[in-house]
Write a structure and sequence with these properties.
The chain starts with a helix and ends in an 8-residue tail after the last helix. Strands 1-2-4-3 form a four-stranded antiparallel sheet, sandwiched between helices. The protein has a single domain, classed as NADH Oxidase (3-Layer(aba) Sandwich), CATH 3.40.109. By secondary structure, the chain is α+β, with helices and mostly antiparallel strands. The protein contains six helices and four strands.
Length: 181
């Protein structure tokens, strides 16, 4: 499949089947995420894979109790949750705090996007969940303060036939040489 076709095929999936995700499928998507670029090749992204039913319930609970935000109930059906973490110790040297401030979320977001594209390429479904309570995840899974939760990615097989959502035309998104006139 050509890359643009894959990018256009990827969807935020909210419906999962009961079919388990195989170790091979999981390794394939994690391997793709591992190859994402990172500033200074620091590779700050870490992945906590959750497949136990009780642990997945704790992941879901981290999406509850946020004022004004509906709990992400759809993740309960996904057989695997991948918690994407940013290792704040990854950047070393004189510029480590500058690199961390500037690149930590860029680098982990690049890895997350690689993961989502690989999920789609393998025929699985996933969704990028960004609304959760950090402390709930930390307490449930003993995540140290040096690791910052960035995203929850529920992964599973799907029969969803989600249609592409509309995209703005490039003429509304792209500027050349300046933002004026």
């Amino acid at each position: 499949m050509r890359f643009n076709e894959l990018a256009q095929q990827r969807r935020s999936i909210h419906h999962f089947t009961d079919e388990p995700v195989t170790d091979e499928e999981l390794e394939t998507v994690l391997e793709a995420a591992r190859w994402a670029p990172s500033a200074g090749n620091a590779q700050p992204t870490r992945f906590l894979v959750i497949s136990d039913e009780l642990n997945r319930e704790m992941v879901w609970e981290s999406t509850t109790g946020i004022e004004g935000v509906t709990p992400q109930n759809f993740i309960k059906k996904a057989p695997v949750h991948i918690i994407v973490l940013a290792d704040t110790r990854a950047y070393k040297g004189k510029q480590s705090s500058l690199f961390m401030e500037r690149f930590l979320f860029q680098d982990t977001s690049a890895a997350t996007m690689n993961l989502l594209l690989a999920v789609s390429d393998t025929g699985l479904g996933a969704c990028w969940v960004g609304m959760f309570r950090d402390e709930a995840l930390r307490e449930s899974f003993n995540i140290p303060t040096t690791l910052k939760p960035v995203a929850i990615i529920p992964v599973g097989h799907t029969e969803s036939k989600e249609k592409p959502r509309p995209r703005k035309p490039l003429t509304e998104l792209v500027y050349h040489e300046s933002l004026s006139g």
